[in-house]
Automatic annotation (TrEMBL):
This is DUF4190 domain-containing protein. The chain crosses the membrane at residues 24-52, 64-82. It comes from Streptomyces neyagawaensis. InterPro entries: YqfX-like. Keywords: Membrane, Transmembrane, Transmembrane helix.
Length: 92
């Protein structure tokens, strides 16, 4: 008797892979956008999405790590600007 995987397991695994890849790309885009606007909100979202993408085994590990780094940079820039201007918001 030969055991085979259920037919519904492979598409679910592919879907999780695509979801993880999408999260990696979204993390990168939100982290990049967070450098310009709404870094208080977009930075943590980018960090969480990158961590989830890496945990789920994304094939776009580079983008996930870039999103993670950009999310952290968003928060660092916010902290520096908050200390120098004594406000939570900033403008060009």
């Amino acid at each position: 008797m030969q055991l085979t995987a259920a037919p519904h397991t492979r598409p679910a695994a592919r879907r999780r892979g695509r979801d993880a890849d999408g999260m990696a790309v979204a993390s990168f885009v939100l982290g990049l956008l967070g450098l310009l606007v709404l870094n208080l909100f977009l930075g943590p979202i980018a960090i969480v999405l990158a961590a989830l993408a890496l945990k789920r085994g994304t094939t776009r590990r580079g983008r996930a790590f870039l999103g993670l780094g950009l999310g952290v940079a968003d928060l660092v820039i916010l902290a520096v600007l908050t200390q120098t201007t004594n406000t939570v918001s900033w403008s060009f």
